[in-house]
């Protein structure tokens, strides 16, 4: 009978020791600023492109290429982040970006010269090449 009582008592002491160790730990390191650069391509049927941007996104549009959009993305963040990018009906690009602290998304889009672009929500700013028509809306 005494052996049976020692098992629960030992378990209680073990749990108490583990709890004490976990509460006395130093906090983890501070989040480190990070960056990521990626590239992609998308076929563009026609000359119209709509871009919906949500978050700290800066768009730069340059002329060049043939019937496709070349995309360079440079993301920077500290802590956790959320990034989504989706093409809808081949002519609408939706970008959403957010993070815990100090983040930015720089997109450079290379499009055919005659492309007409309508941009909504580019909080980081919009820069457009001379041979491309851009409108904010």
Description:
The protein has 137 residues and is an alpha/beta fold. The protein has 1 helix and 8 strands; from the N terminus they run αββββββββ. Strand 4 (68-88) and strand 5 form a beta hairpin. The longest helix is centred in the N-terminal third of the chain and has 22 residues, at 2-23. The termini are far apart.
Order of helices and strands: HEEEEEEEE
Shape assignment: elongated
What is the end-to-end distance?
80 Å
Give the proportion of residues in helices: 10-25%
Mean pLDDT: 85
Question: Which strand-content bin applies to the residues?
Answer: over 45%
Poorly predicted runs are: none
According to DSSP, the number of beta strands is 8
Structure annotation, total helices: 1
Largest sheet entry: 8 strands, mixed
Radius of gyration: 26 Å
Return the structural class: alpha/beta
Give a short synopsis of this structure:
The chain is an alpha/beta fold and 137 residues long. It is built from 1 helix and 8 strands; from the N terminus they run αββββββββ. Strands 1, 2, 3, 4, 5, 6, 7 and 8 form an 8-stranded mixed beta sheet that branches.
């Amino acid at each position: 009978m005494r052996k049976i009582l020692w098992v629960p008592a030992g378990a209680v002491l073990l749990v108490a020791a583990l709890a004490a160790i976990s509460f006395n730990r130093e906090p983890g390191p501070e989040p480190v600023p990070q960056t990521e650069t990626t590239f992609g391509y998308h076929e563009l049927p026609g000359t119209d492109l709509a871009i919906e941007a949500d978050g700290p996104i800066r768009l730069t549009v340059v002329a060049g290429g043939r019937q496709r959009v070349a995309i360079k993305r440079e993301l920077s963040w500290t802590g956790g982040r959320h990034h989504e990018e989706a093409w809808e009906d081949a002519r609408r690009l939706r970008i959403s970006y957010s993070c815990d602290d100090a983040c930015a998304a720089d997109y450079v889009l290379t499009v055919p010269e005659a492309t007409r672009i309508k941009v909504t929500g580019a909080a980081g700013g919009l820069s457009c090449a001379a041979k491309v028509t851009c409108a904010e809306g």
